[in-house]
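#struct-help
A.M.: can someone run this one for me? Single chain, 498 residues.
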Amino acid sequence: MLIQRVKPLARILAQGSDEERGLKRSLGPWALTAMGIGAIIGTGIFVLTGVGSATRAGPALTISFVIAGIVSALAALCYAEVSSKVPISGSAYTYTYATLGEFFAWIVGWALVLEYALGASTVSVGWSGYFTFILHTLHIWDVPQAWQHSHWDPMPGIANLPAAGIILLVTALLVKGTRESGTINAIIVAIKVAIVLFFIAVGVGHIDAANYHLPAGPFTFAGGYLPFGWSGVLGGAAFMFFAYIGFDAVSTTAEEARNPARDLPFGILMSLVICTVLYIVVVAILDGMVPFYKLNVTFPVTFAMNYVGLAWAGVIIAFGAIAGLTTVLLVMMYGQTRIFYAMSRDGLIPPLFVKLHPTWRTPWLSQIVFGLLIAAAGAFFPIGVLGSLTNMGTFVAFILVAAAVPLLRRRHPELKGSFMLPFGPYIIPIAAAVSAICMMYFLKNGNPLVWGFFPIAWLGFIIWFCAGLVFYFSYGRNRSTIALEQTEGLAVVQPRVN
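D.P.: on it. Structure tokens below:
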């Protein structure tokens, strides 16, 4: 049975405690918090707030953020408990392998690859919007519209070349082994937070309360604070969940945390709380400055400043956004290789994809292949579809991590992490899983339809999921380390959970 192929927890913990061959433990609680904030603050606040307001929830996007924040908090609590007990690289993939077994671990790993890859594509489209704005505003160069937008954007083009270009540049940096140090990351995080606070300080004085209650019309739909109704609010929550992606990236650093049992939960929860407060304030000001239906652009924060006649402030914000989005790209594309590394270590994917460059010691082939695919996605697909597909992968991972909490407690009652969920092992995990499923359903709101009724985000995920199943059953199932050991009679088979 596939569900019986559970990776022995003793081996997982041993891999993380290998001081000689493992990663150096140098990250403290505030460094992890800074890393979480660095990964969270990016496209969600600088880009998708505009799309979410214009196409999903209108001014009620503030409520959407509250709902998305609650769902994220439920998932974060599950991550906090599991990561404090299983402090090892691989994030949700490793947690699932230790509890639900190899088959579900494959599903999570495959979903995480989708999350990180298309998440980077989404970020690249937002990066392109701010980059072309700077070039235009400073009269450096007007990039032709045909090369700023994909065919399916509100303003159709041919391909978003700046989006593809930044992905290829980051790919080249990662192939060579250039990665941000903790100091540089902390500086960039400080810049991003400063830019957000700058927007709040300047924008709050330019709020027009009438924008919260526009009359009904062809552009404002039902009008008022809920122009798309409660269905739109929930659709906005499902879409804006992208803004919270990043706290789970903290758990991928488990092998580099000084005290993972204590510091991982702190970094995850603290970064989520700080970013939630900032998001709610920013979106309230944004929708107060500009009528929501005009915000369907990839650079809404700068657009809002321009709209109220503060072009100089828009340029400052654009430069900060460029810096922030670039670091998010680095984190996401780096994280994708770490997921692949963990899966290759378990034999589920060919070792060719994690073969290290003889000089730079980086998984260069994997980085190049995914870099090209990510660049193509950023060039030819609209940001709304990319963001929705990213969320689909994230929700699947969250559901299975939630399931891992009670199973880990039952399989290994001897594990006592520094963080334990309140109200027992079932209430919060069930709430996290159910809310994630609901968010997957409401992603259909504002999403393009295939055949007139089927959301393209659902279709895209089904195609990716089926491709993953084919790969697993044709390769990974027979070549995984656990499978080979069981064949040779060497594997330690843990008892099945009834």
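A.M.: thanks! The radius of gyration is 22 Å.
D.P.: also worth noting: The longest helix spans residues 102-137.
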